[in-house]
Design goal:
The complex is a heterodimer of chains A (162) and B (168). Chain A is of the alpha+beta class and 162 residues long. Chain A has 1 helix and 8 strands. Chain A has an 8-stranded antiparallel barrel. The chains are: A alpha+beta (162), B alpha+beta (168). At the A-B interface, strand 1, strand 2, strand 7 and strand 8 of A face strand 1, strand 2, strand 3, strand 7 and strand 8 of B.
Chain lengths: 162, 168
């Protein structure tokens, strides 16, 4: 009876580990920095509040040892609302690899607490989920009127469960 | 003191004086010259002036930002605007142009830039504010680079160089 119970437990444990391995393998950390130049379209600027649209283009450098997303292009489209320098923003970014597979993510929050969430992907990124936090690591004085240059570091996890 | 000993002593003094004279300009040069090391990233538009199977001429205009790799954070968060012309013949590519590098105070440096293959060389020839009278040069190597058809490109490079400023 005890032997039967022990064998059953061992079989369950074995089954559990087989089921757990693909999920554990699919989830991986992401840590990358996107540097970009942006065009700002100001809809309104009154009473200390700006309302604007942003279009950004840039490139990604990975800080992860596996170089995940390294040399991907970065495109962002979004809107912002709030005081100059500390608006609350919402938008979507697309990062594209040299094979033209891409990942789409939602990017939201105030500049002090940015977060992102992977929504969809194509090619090898089909079925991508996950997300994390983002921090501005560089922000300069606009080199041309109506533009903004900066870098954002994204850290979190990515899941490719089938 | 014997004449030979006097001679040796005189020669020794002369050598010391000469060493001191040589050392002084070297010290002041070392004080004036500063080295820098930064990563810059930019993105922008690419226009085709001419392109066939053998030759292509393109004009690129980019806007970007600098992240310093040094503890003193020299040029950190400086932004830049670059305009270049790119010539491609077969697999060989070269580039010439100019950029404006502006710090957080709005003072800026103008530089001439040229690239042959993967390495880029730039030379500072003009500066305003705290950079007035600047001279110097730098070498850059690409870290990442992508061309996104039909009309834009982006890149990050690591740049190391030195500059000098006239004494106030």
């Amino acid at each position: 009876m005890d032997l039967q119970r022990t064998l059953r437990r061992a079989a369950l444990a074995l089954l559990g580990s087989f089921l757990a391995i693909p999920a554990a393998r699919a989830e991986q950390p992401v840590d990358f920095t996107a540097c970009m130049t942006s065009t700002i379209t100001m809809l309104s600027s009154s009473d200390g509040t700006n309302v604007f649209g942003v279009e950004s283009k840039g490139i990604v450098m990975s800080s992860h040892e596996g170089k995940l997303f390294h040399n991907y292009t970065y495109q962002f489209t979004g809107v912002g609302y709030g005081p100059p320098g500390t608006p609350v923003g919402f938008g979507y970014f697309k990062i594209t690899d040299p094979d033209d597979s891409f990942v789409i993510a939602e990017f939201t929050g105030p500049t002090t607490d940015l977060s992102f969430k992977f929504l969809q992907g194509t090619g090898k990124w089909k079925g991508v989920t996950g997300g994390g936090k983002a921090v501005r690591v560089a922000i300069g004085r606009p080199i041309a009127p109506g533009t903004l240059q900066g870098c954002v570091r994204f850290t979190g996890t990515l899941d490719l469960k089938k | 003191m014997a004449p030979s000993a006097l001679l040796r002593s005189g020669r020794s003094l002369l050598l010391k004086a000469a060493a001191l004279l040589c050392l002084s300009p070297a010290v002041s040069l070392a004080q004036a010259r500063q080295s820098f090391d930064f990563t810059s990233c930019h993105a922008g538009a690419v226009k085709v002036l001419f392109a066939d199977k053998e030759v292509a001429l393109r004009i690129a205009e980019g806007w970007g930002i600098v992240i310093s790799n040094q503890p003193n954070k020299l040029f950190d968060n400086a932004t830049f605007h670059v305009v270049t012309t790119i010539r491609t013949v077969g697999k060989d590519s070269s580039e010439v142009g100019y950029y404006k590098l502006m710090d957080l105070d709005g003072d800026f440096i103008l530089a001439e830039v040229s690239r042959s293959g993967g390495e880029q060389v730039s030379r500072f020839f003009y500066g305003t504010g705290k950079w007035k009278g600047i001279t110097g040069s730098a070498r850059s190597e690409r870290i990442v680079f992508r061309v996104m058809p039909p009309d834009w490109a982006a890149a990050c490079s690591r740049t190391v160089g030195t500059f000098e400023l006239p004494k106030q």
